[in-house]
Amino acid sequence: MLFGCLAHAVTVESCVISDRFWVQAISEIQSKSPQEDVIRKAGPSEIDDRDGLKIHREKVHSNKMPLMMMLLRRRLHYLPIFTAIFIISAFFLSYAISVYHGHVEADFPYISYTAVQAPERCVFAQLVNLGAFLLAANIYIRYLQMSEVIDLLNGQRRVKCMNRLSLILGCLSAFGLTMVANFQTVEMRAVHYTGAGLAFLLGMIYCWLQTSLSVRYCRWSLVAVAQLINSIFLSACLLIFVISKTTFKIKEAQGVGTKWDSLRGVYLTSTISEWLTAASIVTFVLTFYRDFSRIELKSPSVKINDRDIVLQDYRFGALSSSGSAVPDVRQNGHAGIV
């Protein structure tokens, strides 16, 4: 009985201490501003001027940043390399699986025909969807980087519109790549060809827009020359692909031959040019390597608007499960016991 009374007394005393703690904590939070709280934690040695608070916040924020975000922030130039290798590897992996199962011939089928049957179409769709996301990330970061350059050099409005247009066309090209991956050419031919048109045609226009921006601001630097060569090669491959595939389909429909006999040369020309077109669009992001090495990516952050409500909600969820008394924060700032 005595031990029971002592245990009850300790529990009541703990509740009272807990209540006093929350009342004091809430009053301190309401009395001080977030800036004063950061300054108090930082110390006078780190807050010498108005910019010191910003530097301290960035330092604390970077210490809490996940490893992947740290790599993207400080090693952003690796993203184009990883994107190009990932997408091209996805193409060749689905090709290898389809050849292994005997679903396609080994000598350069169309990319789409390497992802018609299972299991290669599942692998192709999954990997190409991820690759399209990475490609869109490169396009968006490039847009942000060029926006900073244009603003820094007081660029004209027409140039800013060109940069925005390249962002839209680039994202549509990446979206077309997902359509190619998810809608097989045998079952959903119209949707598949629409996605291929978005990926190839808009991708080519995007490359030329970025090339024109690089030539405008970098003149004939190494990056501008590399982009120009890539764009010319891409345009030539796309033109050869369209002409050769159209010729092959027309002659095959007329009964002139098949891809195994008299039309073999036209067929291989169309398939090889398709692979080179896709590779040229993907490898264009490699020209972003140098520029991405000179920029940093800020990680996303969240700002709590009403700290009192959030404190009350999360404190209630944390303490109510333990059975402790929970102070109630009213709108007028006073605390009570729930």
UniProtKB/TrEMBL annotation:
Topological category with respect to the lipid bilayer: Multi-pass membrane protein
Principal location listed in the UniProt entry: membrane
Every CWH43-like N-terminal domain range: 77-294
The keyword Flavoprotein belongs to this UniProt entry's keyword annotation: no
Residue ranges crossing the lipid bilayer per the database entry: 78-103, 123-144, 165-184, 190-209, 221-244, 264-289
Top-rank taxon: Eukaryota
Keywords: Membrane, Transmembrane, Transmembrane helix
GO cellular component, one term: endomembrane system
Locations listed in the record: Endomembrane system
InterPro entries xrefs: CWH43_N (IPR019402), DRAM/TMEM150_Autophagy_Mod (IPR050911)
PANTHER family found in the cross-reference section: EG:22E5.9 PROTEIN, FASTING-INDUCIBLE INTEGRAL MEMBRANE PROTEIN TM6P1-RELATED
Family: Belongs to the DRAM/TMEM150 family.
Protein name: CWH43-like N-terminal domain-containing protein
UniProt organism field: Elysia crispata (lettuce slug)
